[in-house]
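Students often ask why inverse folding is considered easier than folding. One informal answer: many sequences map to the same fold, so there is more than one right answer. In these notes we will look at a single instance of the problem. The structure comes first.
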C-alpha cells in the first residue's frame, strides 16, 4: 500500500513547539491548553506575532521536536511492507531542518514532500495514496471527502465528529494494527479498492 504520513503532531508530539513558545512569548502553556490547531490562538497572540516567532525559531524548533512513542519502530515496520511518503505542510525552506530531524531520529529515509499548504488532496492523488496518517482535522475531512482512508491521530485539537473514511487512532501501536486490518481487507478486495473506485468516480465527474 502507499501510505502518506504527516509530520507535525503526527510523528512529532502535538506539543513539540511549547518550550520554544514559552521562552519567546513568556507565556505558560501546558499540553492540556492545546485545544486549537492554530498555535497563535492557543498562545493568545496575533497571527503576525506568531509568524515572526516561527521565522526566528522554526528551524531550531523542528530540529529539536520530540517524537511520539513507538513512531520510529512502527514507521520502520511499515516501510518494510509498504511504500511510505512524508507529506508535510511545511514550506520548502524547512527541508534541510526536516531532513536533519529525520536523520537524527533514524526514521526511514523515504520521499519527503513539502506542500507549503494544508491542502494535501492533490499530493495524495499524485502519490496514489491508500492511507493518509494525519492530525489536523480539516486536512482529514478534505482527504476523506476526496475518497481517501485517513487515520486521524487523536489530539485535543481535533475532537470533532468523524466522517466516513476517517479512523481515529490514539497511538502508533494502534496505527499499525489498523493498517494491518486495512491490508487484510485490501487482499479480500474490499475497503481500499472501493475507495479508489469512488475517487475515480469523483475525478471523472
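Output (designed amino acids):
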Amino acid at each position: 500500500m502507499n501510505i502518506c504520513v504527516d509530520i507535525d503532531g503526527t510523528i512529532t508530539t502535538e506539543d513539540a513547539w511549547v518550550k520554544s513558545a514559552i521562552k519567546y512569548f513568556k507565556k505558560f502553556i501546558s499540553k492540556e491548553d492545546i485545544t486549537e490547531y492554530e498555535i497563535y490562538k492557543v498562545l493568545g497572540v496575533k497571527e503576525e506575532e506568531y509568524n515572526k516567532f516561527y521565522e526566528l525559531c522554526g528551524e531550531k524548533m523542528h530540529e529539536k521536536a520530540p517524537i511520539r512513542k513507538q513512531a520510529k519502530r512502527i514507521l520502520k515496520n511499515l516501510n518494510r511492507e509498504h511504500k511510505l511518503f512524508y507529506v508535510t505542510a511545511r514550506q520548502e525552506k524547512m527541508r534541510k531542518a526536516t531532513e536533519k530531524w529525520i536523520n537524527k531520529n533514524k526514521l526511514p529515509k523515504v520521499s519527503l514532500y513539502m506542500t507549503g499548504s494544508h491542502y494535501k488532496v492533490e499530493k495524495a492523488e499524485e502519490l496514489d495514496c491508500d492511507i493518509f496518517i494525519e492530525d489536523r482535522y480539516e486536512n482529514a475531512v478534505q482527504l476523506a471527502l476526496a475518497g481517501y482512508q485517513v487515520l486521524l491521530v487523536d489530539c485535543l485539537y481535533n475532537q470533532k465528529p468523524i466522517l466516513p473514511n476517517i479512523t481515529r487512532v490514539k497511538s502508533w501501536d494502534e496505527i499499525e494494527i489498523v493498517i494491518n486490518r486495512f491490508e487484510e481487507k485490501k487482499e479480500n478486495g474490499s475497503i481500499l479498492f472501493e475507495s479508489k473506485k469512488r475517487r475515480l468516480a469523483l475525478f471523472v465527474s
